[in-house]
Amino acid sequence: MKNLGTASIAALRQYVRAAESAGADTSALFTKAGLDPAILDSNEDRINGEQFQSFILLLCELTNNPILGLETGDFVQPGSYSVLGYITMSCATLGEAVARIAPFEKLVGDMGTTGLAMAQGSIKLTWHCNYDDPIVRPQVVDNVFASWVTYARWLADDTAASPTRVRLKRQSPGAELEQAYRQRWNCPVQFGADEDSITLKQELMNTRLRQPDPMLRKTLEAHALTQLASLDTDTDLTSRVKHSIQQQLLHGITRQDMVAEDLGITSRTLQRKLSQEGVSYQKLLDEVRQKMAEDYLLNSDLTIPDIALRLGYSETTSFHRKFKAVEGKTPGEFRAYSA
């Protein structure tokens, strides 16, 4: 069976709130899923993914609601995203908040991973669900997308903010229920698609949020990185190294020995273990640098030489060369194209 990782209590709590609002008695579901209801009072504990998937399946069977996931999105709160929720609250723009999803979504749980791609005038968020139960999977995807839209509208203080298009792998729940998706998202929704994705107008990313606080965001991100490191295990070395690199790069440091020390191993051991996983330290460094570079270019006013310095490049020309090799554009062209 596929390892489904863990999920935060905050993610479980959202489903429970939705169920109780609909008048469902969830007490028996906790017992069947092997969960103690008292866990809802904890903000730090996590449950394993198999238990979370089992709880959602039991809830689907109890409610017999084919659009359960869509409706649970109405019950999202900042706390539903753990620390990530408070990080996004402190961002200056919606684009800044969106850029924080992928690096920190593991704090919410291992339900899936987010990909972000830019096309002319639009941004596409793709979500890859890790849950494999055929009943649970579509409900989890619906929940994630419905929660994103509801939460983004709240962050931006704009109830009219909507995607331009949503594509779902799930099959149509029927013509009558399809209308519930279009009413909530106010955009075309395609069922039976080859991906699960939301497309947004790029100009929407410039929307100012209600409580920007750059200093608080920095503090929360440092705390989030510490939490991420504590979640990782020895079987997830690549992820641990990437998180450590990201933390070091916040100080412009790229040294492998310092990352190894942070992980409690020698530099030689780190090199050997990465080699066994078919990657190198330099490759991981390049990947993290590229993501952070794109974030800085899209969501900050830092000059390109300043960004290069922050990412540990000794010369701006080296940054230009590396960035263009990956993106096909110089940092300046990338920023101008995305403006």
For this entry, give a set of tags.
single chain; 339 residues; H-NOX domain; Arc Repressor Mutant, subunit A; 5-stranded mixed sheet; two-stranded antiparallel sheet
Written account of the structure:
- The protein has helices at residues 9-21, 27-32, 49-63, 68-72, 82-89, 94-98, 101-104, 136-156, 175-185, 214-231, 237-249, 256-263, 267-276, 281-299, 304-310, 316-327, 331-338, and strands spanning 6-8, 46-48, 112-119, 122-129, 165-167, 189-190, 197-201.
- The chain is globular and about 60 Å long.
- A hairpin with a 2-residue loop joins β3 and β4 (122-129).
- The mean pLDDT is 90.
- With 339 residues, the chain is α+β, with helices and mostly antiparallel strands.
- α5 (82-89) runs antiparallel to α10 (214-231).
- Assembly state (oligomeric): single chain
Number of helices: 17
Biggest sheet strand order reads: 3-4-7-5-6
Number of separate structural domains: 2
| Contiguous runs where pLDDT drops below 50 for at least 5 residues | none
Using the CA coordinates, give the radius of gyration. Answer: 21 Å
- The average pLDDT score comes to 90
Overall structural class, as computed from helix and strand content, comes to: alpha+beta
Proper CATH architecture of the largest domain: Alpha-Beta Complex
CATH topological fold name of the largest domain: H-NOX domain
Please state the overall shape, judged from the principal axes of the Cα atoms: globular
- Largest sheet, strands/sense/barrel: 5 strands, mixed
Helical proportion? 40-55%
Main CATH class of the largest domain? Alpha Beta
For CATH, the homologous superfamily of the largest domain is named as H-NOX domain
* SSE series: EHHEHHHHHEEHEHEEHHHHHHHH
Strand content: 5-15%
Strand segment tally: 7
- The end-to-end span amounts to 45 Å
